[in-house]
Write a structure and sequence with these properties.
The protein has two helices and five strands; from the N terminus they run H-E-E-E-E-H-E. By secondary structure, the chain is of the alpha+beta class. The strands form two sheets. A three-stranded antiparallel beta sheet has the order 2-3-4. Strands 1-5 form a two-stranded antiparallel ribbon. A hairpin with a 2-residue loop joins strand 2 and strand 3.
């Protein structure tokens, strides 16, 4: 899924992961901020400020306990 699709999914309360995340990492949007699996938060603009390269435009998927990016 694209970055735009991932942002929409997170705004709807879904958890997403990225191909560069480890198998247990996910994020969602809560109260207008990104919420990570460890409870940390940051603004959407801060997160993507450091991830502005085109490699972050794709590679998103909905997080499930079984997706693990092909890893067990």
């Amino acid at each position: 899924m694209t970055k735009s699709e991932a942002l929409k999914a997170m705004q709807e309360g879904q958890k997403v992961t990225h191909r560069f995340f480890t198998s247990h990492e996910w994020m969602t949007i809560e109260n207008g901020k990104i919420l990570f699996e460890d409870g940390g938060t940051c603004t959407i603009s801060d997160f993507f400020h450091f991830r502005s390269d085109s490699i972050w435009e794709n590679g998103w998927e909905l997080y499930t306990n079984t997706n693990n990016h092909g890893n067990k």
